[in-house]
Amino acid sequence: MEVITRSGPQSYDGAAWQRLRDGREGVLLDLGCGEGDYVRRFAREHPRWLAAGLDSDREALRRAARQAERRAERGGAANTLFIAADAQHPPPELEGAAQRLTVHFPWAALLRLILEDAPAFAALLDRLAAERCALELVLNAEAAPPDCEPPTPHSLAAALQGPLAEAGFAVQSCGWLNPQDAPPTRWAGRLVKGSRRAMVGLSASRAG
Ligand SMILES: C[S@@+](CC[C@H](N)C(=O)[O-])C[C@H]1O[C@@H](n2cnc3c(N)ncnc32)[C@H](O)[C@@H]1O
Questions:
Q1: Fewest C-beta atoms under 10 Å: which of 63, 113, 141, 173?
Q2: Summary mean pLDDT of the chain
């Protein structure tokens, strides 16, 4: 698995990944983490968890790692990890790893997967999730890829509920989110809080 650090990429094998998880209360996996603000914040608020962000943009991950590797007084968090991968083809080490899965404001291929191929997206979550896992998905409702209908709570729930149930996830809520309920991510600030664009949030969990 390719891990991006401040000083460059490193290769982690299964044993190295296991050592990082040993003794942890849980693992957060943030798909399409961008510059890692949410991962870093979660890690600071949950020091006994391992907070991992995955993205295909290595430059964004490098910036994320640079911030996370600062001293704690300067906003850093040692319990973070930034993984370079295409979310549709995650490294096998991540299978069954996540007690919390988040996807915030995805775009490009990741957004297209969610909007156009709900069964494949749910199968991906099924692979990454631990037996007990909470899922949080937040979409910008005004930025669908070309040829895709922008999501609404109704369309998202209709598309995802069945495939998520197949993967053992029960949907707890799916609706429009108020700006104050946006997750604390960089894109929430840019796209939603700044310009008040509509967003749809879905939360689900599987109980194991
Ligand atoms: C709008 S940014 C959101 C970043 C962050 N989640 C936030 O809310 O600030 C979308 C991110 O999704 C990532 N992304 C899109 N398709 C992806 C894929 N197939 N695999 C991994 N990352 C992907 C992009 O590289 C980008 O960093």
A1: 173
A2: 95
